[in-house]
Amino acid sequence: xxxxxxxxxxxxxxxxxxxxxxxxxxxxxxxxxxxxxxxxxxxxxxxxxxxxxxxxxxxxxxxxxxxxxxxxxxxxxxxxxxxxxxxxxxxxxxxxxxxxxxxxxxxxxxxxxxxxxxxxxxxxxxxxxxxxxxxxxxxxxx
Length: 142
Ligand SMILES: CC(C)(COP(=O)(O)OP(=O)(O)OC[C@H]1O[C@@H](n2cnc3c(N)ncnc32)[C@H](O)[C@@H]1OP(=O)(O)O)[C@@H](O)C(=O)NCCC(=O)NCCS
What we know:
- The chain is of the alpha+beta class.
- Helices cover about 30% and strands about 20% of the residues.
- Coenzyme A binds near residues 84, 87 and 109.
């Protein structure tokens, strides 16, 4: 299975974005091609795709901000779910983050996404007592 996992590249942007769109994870504020380039430049080993016969079926972005590891944009094409791809991508991103020195991973799940929350809970994640606050900076309404 791991043979299908490789690092995301800049050339993958359109295909990866369409996987995120189908999964309703994208677009988010500021997540354009420049954002994608910066994300890959900062996390070259932890942004991963699942590819079969040249087609991207799933994605995950592991990110290391120097303090904590984060998981973003775990998504699998609808027709390819429930075959272990999501779990394998998550596990691979965790290994890559661990190799960088990360010892705790955070991730955010929309309140209404109970399915994803239970998916993560079955994989060792715990609910945290922390609320996520946010603020748009100039340009956030673009
Ligand atoms: C979350 C997601 C990435 C999982 O991908 P996947 O390839 O299906 O993952 P896996 O095959 O490894 O695991 C799927 C699990 O869901 C379970 N499942 C599948 N369909 C189910 C259903 N209808 N009801 C309950 N459980 C179901 C499977 O049995 C499996 O259980 P397990 O956790 O005990 O292994 C995928 O559902 C997805 O892309 N969702 C939309 C995007 C999203 O919400 N991402 C998370 C953002 S925080």
